[in-house]
Amino acid sequence: MSALSGPWLERLARKVRKAGHDLANQAPKDHDRLRRRLKRLSGALEFCRGLYPPASSRPYAAAIEPLLATLDRLDDVAVVLPLAEALPEGAARTALI
Predict the structure, then answer these.
(1) What is the rounded (10 degree) CA torsion for 60, 2, 15, 41?
(2) Which residue of 19, 45, 52, 87 has the lowest C-beta tally within 10 Å?
(3) CB of 58 closer than 8 Å to CB of 50
């Protein structure tokens, strides 16, 4: 089974690397693409966790978690910011506090 999961996980990881290339210069929609691909990779790692020794899979998964948390926060900001800007002048500050 690990012979099948290895290429699958590598393909997902390659897509993550491609989506994350030049991250600092990407638009929010590109950050979201990376976030979704990381979630997919994280889920696949969880699914295949029992096929690999914990010493090899745990550091890989642990490296994904902080990046995924940051991208989740960036996605929240990307969603809320346009909504806040659409509010009337005084309402935006009150709504965000």
Answers:
(1) -50
(2) 87
(3) no
Whether the Cβ atoms of residue 31 and residue 74 lie closer than 8 Å to each other = yes
Closest CA to 32 of 95, 62, 76: 76
DSSP code of residue 52: S
65 Cβ neighbours under 8 A, 6+ residues apart? 42
Q: Give the Cα separation of 48 and 66 in Å (integer).
A: 20
Q: Is the pLDDT of residue 56 over 90?
A: no
What does the pLDDT look like over 12-44, one tens digit per residue? 999 999 999 998 898 888 899 999 999 999 999
d(CA 71, CA 66): 9
**Do residues 13 and 40 make contact, with C-beta atoms less than 8 angstroms apart?**
no
Phi (first) and psi of residue 27, to 5 degrees: -80, 160
Residue (of 29, 38, 35, 34) closest to 82 by Cα position: 29
